[in-house]
Design goal:
heterodimer, A: 158 residues, alpha+beta, Alpha-D-Glucose-1,6-Bisphosphate, Chain A, domain 4, 7-stranded antiparallel β-sheet, B: 107 residues, mainly alpha, Arc Repressor Mutant, subunit A, two-stranded antiparallel sheet, 2 strands, START-like_dom_sf (chain A), ASHA1/2-like_C (chain A)
Chain lengths: 158, 107
Amino acid sequence: MTKEKTTFVYVTFIRATPEKIFEAITRPEIAARYWGHENVSDWKVGSKWEHVRDNDERKVNIAGNVLEVDAPNRLVISWSDPSEYDLPEKHSRVTFDLVPYEDMVKLTVTHDELETGSGMAIGVTRGWPLVLSSLKSYLETDEPMDVFAQPCATESAA
Amino acid sequence: MDDDKTFKALGDPTRRKLLDLLCEKNGQTLGELCGHLDMRRQSVTQHLGLLEDANLVSVVRRGRERLHFLNPVPLQMVYERWIRKFEQQRLALLHELKTELEGETDD
């Protein structure tokens, strides 16, 4: 039984080098700055990677496999809820493509093989725009965004 | 400025409609999109071109088809820059009012 699959494509232009952006995705201590998570892996094809919350709890929120590595141009990983890591058919796929574009890099994140209407599909459509604008902001201005910001925040944004 | 392009692209009802259509169903062809609009194909192409320029729509070639995907990243940037900070001030006021009315002191 195959469920309907959906694809999302996110594009952002970042004033940085492909190397810097690739590092920002794959180096835990950098990802923690703008993503609130570390992406932990040895980044070899076939290895596991884990998306680990950067706090004391260090909860693994996403897990998957490294499918393709061509630093700093392309990274393909599979993506699943850690409880479904052992079920390959439940994995969706994320492709990062980095292409130099004048003095910028065009970063395209394609998230496909997602089950239409699933919690994961809904979650990632909220998550990616926030993460990518935070990444852009962090690399260009050294000011990441609060990716966990809730609309009900009561502190005024100083 | 990126923001100028975003706002300009959003300043047209047809283009907003196109974004709505892609929000409902992502990854549509020009033909599919035209089916929802009472407009010449050529005009729709022009509007899509402007949305693409503003990076609000990205095009992926799949075989012989060109699929249009909604790219909400620039909208997120606009939200961060132009909406969130005003929202937070307003919410802070509401929070103060609530604290006052309920006589809470723990904040």
